[in-house]
């Protein structure tokens, strides 16, 4: 094989992979769209597609205007938006730290954002954007704290995870304390801040999440190539011309930003950030940027989890419990697999 | 110097050490007693000395005396559960030779809690006795599960692998617990406050319920001290000394599981006490389990009483559950151990 044909083969392969990646993204987007449409039509009662469309256009349909416009639509929109945020932010963490366990919901970043939201609401009686701001600051502080505490000649894998778990344990008991001080809240409301829920979502609450998704998601996507290079190790990435430190900081800021704002709206929907990346990389295969597929997987997870939690089980669960029950076995499986392989975890 | 004088010197030295340690144990017991008194005297409500004295003698006429009467079972429960957790932690660290071992971190308490949740929500468990058995069963299954996962692959159960397996299991089980308990609106609220881990609602009936389990646990655990000393030499050397390694491990672990299960059934999953206490005690008395175990039990009792008293002072006029206080003190301790250059096997 001459070098010319080799380079042709490589190029052809790359095109094939890019095609596959595009096809996967299109398929995932279709699934998401279908799921979205389905959740608008099907609830306790069935609303015909025509009525749903008329409500979406702003028309007034007796009955449907309330069930679809006031109940199902805000809920579905919120589920999709926070799912996109968790999916993309989570996989950005996992790639940046080269460890599937290093997702923000395991190392305490989501808990920190949630604790700040509860603190802002219960103790300071704030609402709206101020709560989101609190969450972002706390999420960043926790991320920096965990990195700082586990830093030693580079951030070591297992140490970072364990430090994160320790920090998360503290934050979780802080949340438990705050919730115990808010006796007027019922269990459902409390569950939002422990497991995550899109119950009772309003459309105007979704606006900051959308803004965060567009801003931070855009930044992450613009850095996708550098992020992929980080996957191969800091030295290799540096050799490829990536400014490793700057990329890390930008990726971390953006990922924490989107996750914290999503958490301020819907709570730390359990394990969505942790699950989306690995599922997406199973679907996409080893190549191509995984940010968008992972975001789509996250949205499908939250949407489907919320639907299952509402209608498919004998009693109603918030979405975080459904995704949590899904993610928990995978977490254990992941540890079994890594230990079996004798990894350095 | 002849061999004989060296021998004598060593013997009298070890005699002196034993004397010091015995005195230390006595002093520790006095400190725990003092803390018990503090715990009865200090609370959300300030009570006059006369009322404390009257309350201790069983009078409940004034509000102050009634408050004291409530604080007595609470203090006893904190002492018992603290001793159980401290002792269980010391044994787990000895059995797994892992400085990060703790009933909370290894997921054993969460396993007990999940078992209780399942028993309550699915099987309508209402007999209090059954409740303790279920918790002990859950603790045992979880301990075996975590140990198997943590020891898969090369190098066996290294400290970090085991800690990670335990922490992941703990997170996973807390998810399952929520899923199991949430549909039952009638018990969910009470279960959640139990799950934070507290001694606030302790009664003499509750103490009577778990006391037999704890006593058996204490006895089995303390009796396994010598076996743990052999295990600390490494499995091969222990076997060479005529110790049946599997039996030694099993017996010590059984004691620890009894203690964790009963403690969790009584007060909910309380973490980090079993982590901190043995480390502190090792500084005082070294690695000899015959001393380490009783010291750990007493220190654990003292620590949990202290944490409970702190929780009442910090959050006046309400109070902080003891599980929250221990998490706030214990998690930084955990992080500190993880951060050390190399997490050595014990």
Automatic annotation (TrEMBL), chain A:
<dbReference type="GO" id="GO:0033214">
    <property type="term" value="P:siderophore-iron import into cell"/>
</dbReference>
<keyword id="KW-0813">Transport</keyword>
<dbReference type="InterPro" id="IPR000522">
    <property type="entry name" value="ABC_transptr_permease_BtuC"/>
</dbReference>
<feature type="transmembrane region" description="Helical">
    <location>
        <begin position="317"/>
        <end position="336"/>
    </location>
</feature>
<dbReference type="InterPro" id="IPR037294">
    <property type="entry name" value="ABC_BtuC-like"/>
</dbReference>
<comment type="similarity">
    <text>Belongs to the binding-protein-dependent transport system permease family. FecCD subfamily.</text>
</comment>
<keyword id="KW-1003">Cell membrane</keyword>
<feature type="transmembrane region" description="Helical">
    <location>
        <begin position="130"/>
        <end position="148"/>
    </location>
</feature>
<keyword id="KW-0472">Membrane</keyword>
<feature type="transmembrane region" description="Helical">
    <location>
        <begin position="76"/>
        <end position="97"/>
    </location>
</feature>
<dbReference type="Pfam" id="PF01032">
    <property type="entry name" value="FecCD"/>
</dbReference>
<feature type="transmembrane region" description="Helical">
    <location>
        <begin position="287"/>
        <end position="305"/>
    </location>
</feature>
<feature type="transmembrane region" description="Helical">
    <location>
        <begin position="249"/>
        <end position="275"/>
    </location>
</feature>
<feature type="transmembrane region" description="Helical">
    <location>
        <begin position="24"/>
        <end position="46"/>
    </location>
</feature>
<feature type="transmembrane region" description="Helical">
    <location>
        <begin position="160"/>
        <end position="179"/>
    </location>
</feature>
<keyword id="KW-0812">Transmembrane</keyword>
<dbReference type="GO" id="GO:0005886">
    <property type="term" value="C:plasma membrane"/>
</dbReference>
<dbReference type="GO" id="GO:0022857">
    <property type="term" value="F:transmembrane transporter activity"/>
</dbReference>
<protein>
    <submittedName>
        <fullName>Iron chelate uptake ABC transporter family permease subunit</fullName>
    </submittedName>
</protein>
<keyword id="KW-1133">Transmembrane helix</keyword>
<feature type="transmembrane region" description="Helical">
    <location>
        <begin position="106"/>
        <end position="124"/>
    </location>
</feature>
<feature type="transmembrane region" description="Helical">
    <location>
        <begin position="205"/>
        <end position="222"/>
    </location>
</feature>
UniProtKB/TrEMBL annotation, chain B:
<feature type="transmembrane region" description="Helical">
    <location>
        <begin position="20"/>
        <end position="42"/>
    </location>
</feature>
<dbReference type="InterPro" id="IPR000522">
    <property type="entry name" value="ABC_transptr_permease_BtuC"/>
</dbReference>
<feature type="transmembrane region" description="Helical">
    <location>
        <begin position="320"/>
        <end position="338"/>
    </location>
</feature>
<keyword id="KW-0472">Membrane</keyword>
<protein>
    <submittedName>
        <fullName>Iron chelate uptake ABC transporter family permease subunit</fullName>
    </submittedName>
</protein>
<keyword id="KW-1133">Transmembrane helix</keyword>
<keyword id="KW-0812">Transmembrane</keyword>
<feature type="transmembrane region" description="Helical">
    <location>
        <begin position="130"/>
        <end position="150"/>
    </location>
</feature>
<dbReference type="GO" id="GO:0005886">
    <property type="term" value="C:plasma membrane"/>
</dbReference>
<feature type="transmembrane region" description="Helical">
    <location>
        <begin position="75"/>
        <end position="92"/>
    </location>
</feature>
<feature type="transmembrane region" description="Helical">
    <location>
        <begin position="251"/>
        <end position="279"/>
    </location>
</feature>
<feature type="transmembrane region" description="Helical">
    <location>
        <begin position="202"/>
        <end position="223"/>
    </location>
</feature>
<feature type="transmembrane region" description="Helical">
    <location>
        <begin position="291"/>
        <end position="314"/>
    </location>
</feature>
<keyword id="KW-1003">Cell membrane</keyword>
<dbReference type="GO" id="GO:0033214">
    <property type="term" value="P:siderophore-iron import into cell"/>
</dbReference>
<dbReference type="GO" id="GO:0022857">
    <property type="term" value="F:transmembrane transporter activity"/>
</dbReference>
<feature type="transmembrane region" description="Helical">
    <location>
        <begin position="104"/>
        <end position="123"/>
    </location>
</feature>
<dbReference type="InterPro" id="IPR037294">
    <property type="entry name" value="ABC_BtuC-like"/>
</dbReference>
<dbReference type="Pfam" id="PF01032">
    <property type="entry name" value="FecCD"/>
</dbReference>
<comment type="similarity">
    <text>Belongs to the binding-protein-dependent transport system permease family. FecCD subfamily.</text>
</comment>
<feature type="transmembrane region" description="Helical">
    <location>
        <begin position="162"/>
        <end position="182"/>
    </location>
</feature>
<keyword id="KW-0813">Transport</keyword>
């Amino acid at each position: 094989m001459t070098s010319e044909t080799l380079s042709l083969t490589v190029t052809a392969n790359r095109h094939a992979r890019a095609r596959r990646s595009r096809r996967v993204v299109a398929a995932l987007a279709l699934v998401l769209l279908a799921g979205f449409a389905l959740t608008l039509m099907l609830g306790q009662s069935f609303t015909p597609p025509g009525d749903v469309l008329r409500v979406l256009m702003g028309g007034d349909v007796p009955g449907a205007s309330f069930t679809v416009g006031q109940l199902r639509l805000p809920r579905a929109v919120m589920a999709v938006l926070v799912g996109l945020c968790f999916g993309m932010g989570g996989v950005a963490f996992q790639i940046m730290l080269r460890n599937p366990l290093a997702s923000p919901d395991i190392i305490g970043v989501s808990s920190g954002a949630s604790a700040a939201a509860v603190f802002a609401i219960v103790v300071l009686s704030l609402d709206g954007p101020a709560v989101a701001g609190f969450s972002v600051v706390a999420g960043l502080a926790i991320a920096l704290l965990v990195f700082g505490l586990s830093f030693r000649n580079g951030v070591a894998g297992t140490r970072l995870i364990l430090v994160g778990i320790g920090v998360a344990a503290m934050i979780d008991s802080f949340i438990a304390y705050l919730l115990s001080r808010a006796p007027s809240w019922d269990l459902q409301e409390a569950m939002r801040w422990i497991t995550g829920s899109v119950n009772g979502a309003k459309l105007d609450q979704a606006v900051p999440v959308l803004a965060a998704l567009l801003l931070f998601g855009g930044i992450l996507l613009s850095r996708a190539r550098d992020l992929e290079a980080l996957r191969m190790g800091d030295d290799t990435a540096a050799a490829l011309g990536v400014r490793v430190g700057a990329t890390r900081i930008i990726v971390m800021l953006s990922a924490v930003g989107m996750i914290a704002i999503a958490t301020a709206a819907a709570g730390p929907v359990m394990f969505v950030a942790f699950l989306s990346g690995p599922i997406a990389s199973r679907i996409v295969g080893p190549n191509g940027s995984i940010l968008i597929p992972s975001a789509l997987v996250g949205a499908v997870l939250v949407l489907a989890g919320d639907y299952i939690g509402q209608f498919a089980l004998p009693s109603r669960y918030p979405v975080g419990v459904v995704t949590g029950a899904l993610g928990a076995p995978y977490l254990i499986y992941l540890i079994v697999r890594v230990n079996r392989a004798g990894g350095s975890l | 110097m002849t061999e004989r004088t060296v021998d004598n010197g060593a013997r009298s030295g070890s005699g002196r050490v034993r004397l010091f340690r015995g005195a230390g144990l006595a002093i520790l017991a006095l400190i725990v007693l003092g803390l018990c008194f503090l715990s009865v005297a200090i609370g959300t409500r300030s009570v006059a000395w006369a009322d404390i004295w009257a309350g201790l003698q069983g009078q409940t006429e004034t509000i102050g005396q009634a408050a004291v009467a409530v604080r007595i079972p609470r203090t006893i429960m904190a002492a018992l559960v603290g001793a159980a957790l401290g002792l269980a932690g010391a044994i787990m660290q000895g059995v797994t030779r892992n400085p990060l071992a703790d009933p909370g971190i290894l997921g054993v308490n969460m396993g007990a809690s999940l078992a209780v949740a399942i028993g309550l929500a699915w099987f309508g468990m209402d007999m209090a006795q059954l409740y303790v058995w279920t918790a002990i069963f859950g603790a045992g299954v979880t301990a075996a599960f975590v140990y198997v996962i943590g020891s898969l692959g090369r190098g066996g159960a290294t400290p970090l692998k085991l800690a990670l397996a335990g922490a992941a299991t703990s997170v996973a089980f807390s998810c399952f617990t929520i899923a199991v308990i949430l549909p039952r609106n009638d018990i969910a609220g009470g279960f959640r406050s139990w799950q934070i881990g507290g001694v606030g609602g302790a009664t003499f009936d509750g103490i009577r319920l778990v006391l037999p389990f704890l006593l058996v646990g204490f006895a089995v655990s303390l009796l396994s001290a010598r076996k743990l000393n052999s295990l600390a030499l490494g499995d091969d050397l222990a076997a060479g000394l005529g110790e049946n390694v599997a039996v030694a491990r099993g017996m010590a672990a059984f004691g620890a599981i009894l203690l964790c299960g009963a403690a969790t059934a009584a007060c909910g999953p309380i973490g980090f006490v079993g982590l901190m206490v043995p480390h502190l005690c090792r500084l005082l008395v070294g690695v000899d389990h015959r001393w380490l175990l009783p010291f750990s039990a007493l220190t654990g009792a003292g620590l949990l009483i202290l944490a409970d008293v702190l929780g009442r002072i910090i959050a006046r006029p309400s109070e902080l559950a003891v599980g929250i206080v221990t998490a706030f003190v214990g998690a930084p301790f955990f992080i500190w151990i993880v951060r050390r250059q190399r997490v050595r096997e014990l």
